[in-house]
Design a protein that fits this description.
It is a single chain. This protein is of the alpha+beta class. It has one domain (5-92): Alpha-Beta Complex (Outer Surface Protein A, domain 3), CATH 3.90.930.60. It is 39% helix and 27% strand. It is built from three helices and six strands, in the order ββββαβααβ. The protein has helices at 38-49, 54-64, 73-86, and strands spanning 5-8, 14-19, 22-27, 32-36, 52-53, 90-92. A three-stranded antiparallel beta sheet has the order 5-1-6. Strands 2-3-4 form a three-stranded antiparallel beta sheet, with helices on one face. A hairpin with a 2-residue loop joins strand 2 (14-19) and strand 3 (22-27). The longest helix has 14 residues, at 73-86. The protein is globular, with a radius of gyration of 13 Å.
Length: 95
């Protein structure tokens, strides 16, 4: 995994509703609503605070998941980032 940096797309922000272990995200910039699992929601919450590197997000996920998940934390982060990017919720920060 490279050490890319990620941030939430656009300045318009996100609105969220948490319930029953899932999180609905409304992206004001696009007008789209998405349902996220708790791990994706926590990584997104961290990215809302400031841009983060892959390594930062792997470390955060490792703290959140106990015991060790079936998939390595790096693989989980890669999957989550790919999905959030596909949904145009996050973008890679240019160096």
């Amino acid at each position: 995994m490279s050490d890319r940096r990620w941030q939430v797309c656009g300045p318009s922000g996100l609105a969220r509703v948490d319930w029953d272990g899932e999180v609905a995200i409304y992206h004001r910039g696009s007008g789209d609503t998405h349902l996220l699992d708790p791990l994706a929601a926590e990584l997104l919450r961290a990215l809302e605070q400031q841009p983060r590197s892959d390594a930062d997000l792997v470390s955060l996920l490792s703290e959140l998941v106990s015991p060790e998940p079936a998939r390595p934390p790096q693989a989980l982060v890669e999957t989550i980032l790919g999905e959030l990017k596909r949904l145009n919720i996050i973008e890679q920060v240019e160096p």
